Amino acid sequence: MEHHMSKYACNSCTQKSKPVDIPNRRTRRYFLFQEEKAKLRKDEDMKRYGDRALLEGKPCRGVKGPSIKSLLPLLDRSTCSFPEHLHSLCLGVVKSLMLLMFLKPGPWNLKEFTGAIDKVFLKNVQPPDDVSRLPRSLSFLKVWKASEFSHWLIFYSVPIMTKFMKKEYFQHWVLLVISVQLLSQEKISADDLHLADELLRLFLRDVGLLYPESAYTYNMHQLEHFGLCVRR
Ligand SMILES: [Zn+2]
Are 219 and 92 in contact (CB under 8 A)? Predict the structure, then answer.
């Protein structure tokens, strides 16, 4: 596959990323929200695209050529690479949104509350025994580990941030928290899976209303496929 900022970078679907002009930066490609979902990849398509890329000497729908891995029995090239919790979600989506909130100017910015949030977070939060990392100041956000973003998202952010985020930003954040909580259950009902899918679509749709278009990264787009991965 081509790299994550290329035209057809998604391993799961054929959504075409769009070039977006970012002030003072190079134009880059982002996976803007589409009302109509792009076609999911299939193993036979991946083979066809790979063969065509080899013949034409250039990538086809993001596939650079045939892969030796296709010789592995039962391997499906359209499902063998997928988004997951720690990298795609915690270090991808959660970290990038939190860096925006605490470091970048804009209507989402919470920098003025950093001290107050830290006070609640560091003094009032008592993690249970199975959480090995104690809460760490938001001033270390850039070096937080994936598990710290995970715990922040799932356990701490809602009770703490309700006092500090603007209402529309908080409601939007909660869509992500609920979806991830639903999808992280040991067992999931069809109704919960459907609900998580719907909430993630709403979350993704409104990313473009509340944050800059550059928030629609490859990892952000992967939220589109979280429900599908759990279903599979
Ligand atoms: Zn996709």
Answer: yes
